[in-house]
Design brief:
- By secondary structure, the chain is an all-alpha fold.
- The chain has one domain (about 10-84).
- The chain has four helices and no strands.
- The protein has helices at about 10-25, 25-30, 35-70, 75-84.
Length: about 80
């Protein structure tokens, strides 16, 4: 059985770039209008990194809130189970 990979056409690449660009929020999308694929990829990576930082910040804030709550309450148990 051959393990050859099918080549991606320029049209398919352009379609994927357009789809990726549509996933960026509007302010970041404006920075990449008619931009090169490399600029779009850099902006996408930057956006993903900012999302990771935001998730970490929210997680830290949630942990702080949980610590101040009654440890035996049903709400705390629900939150803990969702985090695990």
């Amino acid at each position: 059985m051959s393990s050859r990979r099918r080549r991606i056409t320029d049209g398919e690449i352009n379609e994927l770039i357009t789809k990726l660009q549509s996933l960026l929020p509007e302010p970041r999308r404006r920075n990449t209008n008619r931009a090169s694929a490399s600029k779009l990829l850099k902006e996408t990576c930057s956006y993903i990194k900012s999302l990771h930082r935001e998730v970490e910040d929210l997680s830290d804030r949630l942990s702080d809130i949980i610590e101040t709550m009654d440890g035996d309450s049903p709400q705390v148990e629900i939150i803990r189970s969702l985090l695990n």
